[in-house]
Amino acid sequence: MGAAADDAASVRAAVMRLSFGAAAEERRDAAGEVARLARADERTKRLLPELGVLPPLLDMLGGAGPGARLAAAGALLELARGTHRNKVRIVQAGLLKKLPVVADDRDVCRSQELALLLLSISSLANTDFPLRTTELLPFLVATLGATDVPPDAKLPCLAALRNLSAKLEHARDVASSGAVRALLPLSLEPKTSEPALAVLGELAAAAGREAMEAEGEAVPRALLEAMTRHGSARCQERATYLAMVLAHGSRALRRAMRRLGVVQALLEVSLLSSSPLAQRRAAIILRWFKEDGPQSRTTRAHSGPRVEGVAEATSCRDDDVAGEAKGCRDTTVDEIVRRSLDRNMKSILRRATASVDLTNVKLLVTSSSSKSLPC
């Protein structure tokens, strides 16, 4: 009974200081106390929004000093964690309308607390709640495109984008928001590569192929970089999935991939990747590239009388040309495979022989007495 009474008194005191505190430091301390209470007890977490803590916390997030804003973001994060009802109440209280104001504060908009809060709110996109992505997307895209935001703050934003991209109606908004341009540089960074490629794959499968075509050769270049990262099987799986979606639906992107050397990278993945899934996907795409050649036969209109001998000779020549073209393509693929194997075998042999101490081997050979074997 005593502990419960103390908790109730702490809740009342925190709510009073948060709502009526005169100094910014007092409200900041009250926000920290709200975060502690929400983290400590689920029942208290559900009770606090009913006691009116959300409006003052959102006011702090939008208009107080940097320290108070961070404290408010932390308190809102603790209130939102694991409770659908609290997330809905936070959005209804006006969180998304505060984001343009928060974007002007470099310390807050680049903090991990706010990024995690938006990740928690983005999970509402997979429910029946009508989440307005047009208010959330500009902040997420700007954060991902900023060069001074640490990766720890970008990772929750990437996860939030993936939540939004999972639903078709939101995926169109994500694709048209400029997210593809912000995601491509992140797909080249080791820490953010896998989640960025995952979001790009979701967008390409849903509604974002046109946005990727608009980026020109940037998408194939990112794929090439990700597929040659043999130390990360997950990146290769994400990259080959994205390549499958794009190569299957866009002839222009297939041409760009071929021109930039993606076929060579796919061959290496199909032969050397540690992921069986990436190997299978790469093999499928290679078959598409092999079949994506000029047709061996073309139908032409002929206005004059048909001469059998000429027609047969022309048909024979067409068959010869088609056979030569097919043989040339097969030879090219075989040559690429052979070169890839030769290059990788040389690399393997170089690594294997680097650790051998040739001096010790020579000393061992010269110092040991050898006898000829009997015939």
TrEMBL record:
Q: Which residues are in coiled coils?
A: none
Enumerate the Gene3D superfamilies for this protein: Leucine-rich Repeat Variant
Q: Which InterPro entries match?
A: ARM-like, ARM-type_fold, Armadillo
Name under which the protein is recorded: ARM repeat superfamily protein
